[in-house]
Amino acid sequence: MPLDEKELLERDAKRNIGEELLQAVRDIKAGQVGRISTVEVSPLASARQRIGLSQSEFARMLGVSLRTLQEWEQGRRKPSGAAKSLIAIAIKDPETLQKLLAA
């Protein structure tokens, strides 16, 4: 059960944050990492990064808004129509897409 405000204040008053931080550094140096996070990069974001474009530049190249590209990369929205074809090319051969759209 979560602690209420008063219980949190009482608990925190007894903590030695400096010592906790030092211990965390010691643990890391000793190879005892507590939590490891991994970030999965979408194929679209990976393709964009391979050709060295920012999200803004890539969105402009595809003819979509920055927000639309971000939502595609984060998997919140799915592209449709011609965008699907451009994205398929971007994932398989981003350099070719860049050459085609730059011409």
From TrEMBL:
It comes from the Bacteria. SMART domains: HTH_XRE. Keywords: DNA-binding, Transcription, Transcription regulation. The keyword Metal-binding does not apply. It comes from Geomonas paludis. Residues 44-97 form the HTH cro/C1-type domain. GO terms for molecular function: DNA binding. The keyword Transcription applies. This is Helix-turn-helix domain-containing protein. InterPro entries: Cro/C1-type_HTH, HTH-type_reg/antitoxin, Lambda_DNA-bd_dom_sf. PROSITE patterns: HTH_CROC1. Pfam families: HTH_3 (PF01381).
